[in-house]
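can u do me a favor
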């Protein structure tokens, strides 16, 4: 058994070295041998002498059917490609029209937004104008109330002044009578 183990190791090494080595080109004798062998076989791998006559006709019928199926598949795939291309074109046209509609809607929305911002600016200008007018009005009302109070004070002072003049005139008369 010990003699068997090293052999398997050598065989695996040999197999490994064969699989790891790059493939070499076949020698001219190998080519001739392969050519001879292939010429004796048809595509099914059987020699021409091995086949009975019924198998050959069934084989050719099968090949014909497979060729027809392959042709149908190729035709259907080319038709499918044409159909898919047409569908893709239609889909692209739909998407282009949707994109155009979206762009138009975007332009409308932007114009509406611009109008709204202009209105807002006008309203804010108006509101600032209104606020300044309110402030001015309040300032004027305050000045008017202050002036009214000053007028009241002035009328009181005039009346006080008139009373003092009257008293002063009466005192002057009394002093003049006393001095006579």
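np, heres the sequence
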């Amino acid at each position: 058994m010990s003699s068997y183990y090293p052999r398997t190791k050598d065989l695996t090494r040999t197999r490994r070295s064969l699989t790891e080595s790059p493939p070499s080109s076949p020698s001219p004798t190998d080519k001739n041998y392969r050519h001879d062998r292939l010429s004796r076989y048809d595509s099914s791998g059987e020699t021409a002498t091995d086949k009975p006559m019924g198998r050959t006709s069934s084989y050719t019928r099968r090949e014909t059917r497979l060729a027809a199926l392959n042709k149908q598949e190729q035709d259907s795939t080319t038709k499918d490609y044409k159909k898919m291309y047409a569908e893709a074109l239609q889909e692209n046209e739909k998407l282009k029209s949707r994109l155009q509609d979206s762009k138009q809607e975007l332009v409308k929305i932007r114009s509406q937004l611009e109008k709204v911002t202009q209105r807002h600016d006008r309203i804010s200008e108006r509101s600032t104008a209104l606020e300044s007018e309110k402030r001015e009005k309040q300032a004027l009302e305050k000045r008017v109330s202050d002036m009214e109070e000053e007028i009241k004070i002035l009328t009181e002072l005039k009346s006080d002044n008139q009373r003092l003049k009257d008293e002063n005139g009466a005192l002057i008369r009394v002093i003049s009578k006393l001095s006579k």
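Confidence is low (pLDDT under 50) at residues 47-51. hope that helps!!
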